[in-house]
Specification:
By secondary structure, the protein is of the alpha+beta class. The protein has four helices and 14 strands. Helix 2 crosses helix 4.
C-alpha cells in the first residue's frame, strides 16, 4: 500500500490493498455494532467484485480510483440525491485539475470525458422501517485513471487513453475527497438546489433526443429538463412529459455533444 492520502477535516480513511467492493465494505462498517462515523472513506487499490448501478459489475484493476464515503447526513430521503450530484461535480472538478478537458455530466450518475464515460457514482442508503431519514448513505465513486473496460455498451475511456498523465490513486483520492467536501458543504448549507443548478450547467443531452432504459422498457423522446427534485423530464413523441427518477440514458447516434 502506498503512503496514506491526506484527507480534509471530518474524514477518516480505511485503506485496503484489495476488497470485494468498497461500497459493500462501507455499508458493512456502517451497520456494525461499532458503527462507523460520518465521513469514513473506504479506499482500495483494486476491487474483486466492484459494483455499478442495478448490481452491474464494475471492472476494477489496480491503477484507477475506487472509493466509497459513508455519511450520516440526517436529511430526508428526498434530499439525498443531492449527494450523488455533489459527487459527480467533485469528480468533474478533479478531472479538470488533472488536465482533463471537455468534461461533462450524464444523468443520473456518470461523468464523461469527450463522448465516453470516465467515471461513475453509486449512491446507496438505508432507512429503518418507515423512517424518512436514512441511517446512513454511501457515496461510491470509480474513476478510470490508468485503464478502462473495453466493449461496454456505452463507450468508456480513461485519462491515460485520452493522453492525460494519470495521477497515482492516492493523489487522486486526495483531490476527489477535497472537492467532494466542498460540494457536500454546499449541499448541507443550501439543500438540493445548491448542487442542482451547477449540475445542470454541465449536464449533457438537454434539448436533444435520447433513449432511457428503465425497468422493463426503453422510452424515447427529448430530454426536456432536469426537474427541481433531480428527476429527468422526457418529452414523448406525442407531446406529454414523462418524469423518470432512475434509468440508463443513451444519446442519439451522431449527437456527440447534445445540449
Amino acid at each position: 500500500m502506498t503512503a496514506a492520502p491526506r484527507l480534509p477535516a471530518g474524514f477518516a480513511l480505511v485503506a485496503l490493498t484489495s476488497t470485494e467492493s468498497t461500497n459493500e465494505e462501507a455499508k458493512r462498517r456502517g451497520e456494525s455494532p461499532d458503527a462507523a462515523p460520518d465521513g469514513l472513506v473506504v479506499w482500495a487499490l483494486e476491487q474483486r467484485a466492484g459494483k455499478g448501478r442495478r448490481g452491474r459489475g464494475w471492472i476494477s484493476p489496480p491503477g484507477n480510483l475506487y472509493s466509497s464515503i459513508l455519511l450520516r447526513p440526517g436529511r430526508p430521503l428526498g434530499e439525498i440525491a443531492g449527494l450523488g450530484f455533489a459527487a459527480a461535480l467533485a469528480i468533474r472538478d478533479s478531472l479538470i485539475a488533472w488536465g482533463g478537458r471537455d468534461v461533462a455530466l450524464k444523468w443520473p450518475n456518470d461523468v464523461l470525458l469527450g463522448a465516453s464515460k470516465i467515471a461513475g457514482v453509486l449512491l446507496e442508503s438505508r432507512a429503518n422501517g418507515s423512517e424518512k431519514i436514512p441511517e446512513w448513505v454511501v457515496v461510491g465513486a470509480g474513476i478510470n485513471l490508468a485503464s478502462h473496460p473495453e466493449g461496454t455498451e456505452f463507450p468508456a475511456t480513461s485519462l491515460a487513453a485520452e493522453g492525460y498523465p494519470p495521477p497515482q490513486p492516492a493523489q487522486a483520492l486526495e483531490t476527489y475527497v477535497a472537492a467532494f467536501a466542498r460540494w457536500r458543504a454546499r449541499w448541507l448549507d443550501g439543500g438540493l438546489a445548491a448542487v442542482l443548478e451547477p449540475y445542470r450547467r454541465h449536464l449533457r443531452g438537454v434539448g436533444a433526443p435520447i433513449s432511457v432504459r428503465i425497468e422493463g422498457e426503453t422510452v424515447r423522446g427529448i430530454f426536456d429538463a432536469l426537474e427541481d427534485d433531480g428527476t429527468l423530464a422526457l418529452r414523448l413523441a406525442d407531446g406529454p412529459i414523462r418524469r423518470i427518477s432512475a434509468g440508463d440514458v443513451f444519446f442519439a447516434r451522431g449527437d456527440r455533444e447534445p445540449r
